[in-house]
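Here is a typical sample entry:
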Amino acid sequence: MDWLTAQDHRVCAAIGEELLHGAFGYYNEIGIGLNMEKALTALINHPLIFFKNDFNTPVEFVKGEPELRLRNLDNRLHISMEPRPVDRMNRVALLKETANRFKVVCFSTEHINISRLVGEEGLIIPRKEEKRVGQAIAAVSAFLTITSDMEADGMQPFVPMEADPTVHVHLIPWHAGIKMETLVRPFGQVGSYFRPGRGGRHVLADMDGKKARVVRDLELEKENEKQIVKACPTLSHLDPANGEWVVKDPEEALELLLELKTCDEAPILKWPRGQKITLRHRVSFSDVSLSLKKDRDWFKATGSLFLGDDTSVDLFRLMALLETSTGRFITLDDGTFLAITQSLKARLEELKAYSTPHGDGLRFSPLAAQAMEELTDQAGSLESDAAWKSHCSRLKETIQPKIPNTLKARLRDYQVTGFNWLCRLSHWNVGGCLADDMGLGKTVQSLAAILVHASKGPALVVAPLSVMNNWEQECQNFAPALNPVIFGGKNRDQLLSDLAPYDLVICSYGLLPIEVEKLSAVEWQTIVLDEAQAIKNRKTKRSKAAMKLNGRFRLITTGTPVENHLEELWTLFHFLNPGLLGTHHRFKKMFSVPIEGNQDKGASQRLRKLIRPFILRRLKTEVLKELPEKTEITLQVEMSRDEAILYEAQRLKSLENIHRTDDSSGQKHFRILAELTRLRLLCCNPSLVLADARIESSKLKVFMDTVRELLENQHKALVFSQFVGHLAILRKALDKEKITYQYLDGSTSAEKRRKRINDFQNGLGDFFLISLKAGGTGLNLTAADYVIHMDPWWNPAVEDQASDRAHRIGQTRPVTVYRLVVKDSIEERIVDLHKEKRELAENLLAGSETAGRLSASELLELMQTKRSEH
């Protein structure tokens, strides 16, 4: 085996014939065995010894000698030897000194003789013989190390030396982390190791032929160890076992190394041979050099991070290294680790999220300038071209927008703030999302912004069909200078060709994809997408059509920027400010998947910071303290025995239908939704699934009990259901008891819709039955003080939107929302989903709510971004 070294051959030489144990422990058989004395001796200083279960951690074998220990025991001296030979045949022992360091103790004839004199239990000697014991110790100190509790008396042959109380920290890689133990070495860099504060106070040894003695300060050793542990917060939640700390997490292990290197009383760090983890010094903003220059419609960042000793890492390479970094520790190409401050780490993560690699640098949208402000302001050095300086200078221009005198409405303070915010966005040629709560006047704020540029050309509003007349009416009431025109009928071409300043074209989402070529040919001064969640799906025709529209200022209004998942937000901002959130693929990688899939709080914070200047959200509870509170109550409906049997039978049949078919993945998805809908219909009323079931509906019974109670107390209520068939059953039940009501679903014409809303507001009808989708937009029903949801829906945003219809400005009574939920059914699961989705939306928008509470000057400072001139 030519790969064996000379030292390996010496170990192999320990293999040979020897007497082996036979039956009953007798040496009665010759065989091949390993001579441990020869083998262990040959392994001293071998470079390739490892633990059996960890081939990554080297083990160190060093030559050692036994230790003679003298202890005070009831005013007597106790002398013992550790380790001691078992018998004359076993002249070697292996003694663990540190976590990965072992002493190979080879017993000489003198050691064996001393061991025989001391005995297995040790010697007990009267204290009066202390001087003679000292003389005996001096005689044997050349053969072994001596530790003692005895004072200096009788130790004259030993030259006193000053003990070294410095703590030695022994570290070894341990799986993904490290293992650490603390020791002291009284003779400095030579001699035996001891646990701090443990062992004999006096240590005697033969050092290079000289008899030497040190007196350890055990209390100081303990204090030094205590200070080191105190300076390492990483150890605060770990309990040492036998003087060893095991740090399993790799990031915590690197934090511990940094803490050890920077603590006031730096310990001596010792690694296994060839296994050291090198941690470079910590770097911060002052070590960053940035260069920002115009790159067509973008800006490009280049630069470097200085590491000291005349070395640096290029910014482009640094971004790549961040991909594989552990927390705030970056693994460099040479295998060493670089520690960066948490704040710098956060800024670099933002730069990575907001930019894309391009050439030798990172390219980012001018719209992301404000989000990157902390990095650019705090960098050690910043070099920029005239375009960047001009860009920043323009953003700091002071503008003082005035509310147009043609606006015939008195804006509340928060609405003035919203108007000022919209004007600043328009001045910088960027789009914005007005995401105020329902009832806070998004329409009137939008009309005020439209009036600012109305004299320069026409404006376009795209809205759901159900609210087009509402826009026309609001325009006539609050902005009579505008000429509202409903886009439809046969003369569309003529309408568009005759457009003039102050014209406001109101188009439905249904007509938008049909006439997109004509609408996109017009240069609109302002484009408003009302209830913009209508374009949330980027793959739909209406969404693609919206992206083609040309306008100087783009505005979307919606109370629910995120209804189901974050990709909807990307679509809305792709309309408002293309390029801000990058490509759809990159948005999924940097934000959507980390936030929704991994609950990454850092990614969520970076996204909020990026969109914060372009989204304004105020809650009613924040700006309208006079509004009554809204109480939400879930009414648990118990199924009857017959309903429960029918529901369980249908559930089992649904499972069978799903698993029995050979549908494709897409078809199976729709089949599952169909089966779930059937179960929901059963929860509403069995007759919706089985017309001849003749099973009384428990939910209908609870509903009618609630209706009677509301009537007795002179309340009015809105009643929502997703299913028109369910509303038909409710109408029949109300007709039977001669209870007056209004009715509205998707088939109701715009004229009848307006009349029924007005009738209800004027007191004609105690209840208003509304299909959920038809009632999601364009309602202003302040006459009701109760809302009843008959069947929870998958989308909490739409349901919440419908609930708030009775909670508009002008409502004077407290509003109560009832949700009828069948116990132990799919409806309970839907309610749970409501909570999760609502929390996601609220967390995402939390950072943008502050914008509405800032002063005008503070808003101006915040708005440091714009759409590129192109």
User: Anything to note?
Assistant: Residues 716 and 784 are 5 Å apart (CA to CA). Residues 847-870 have pLDDT under 50 and may be disordered.
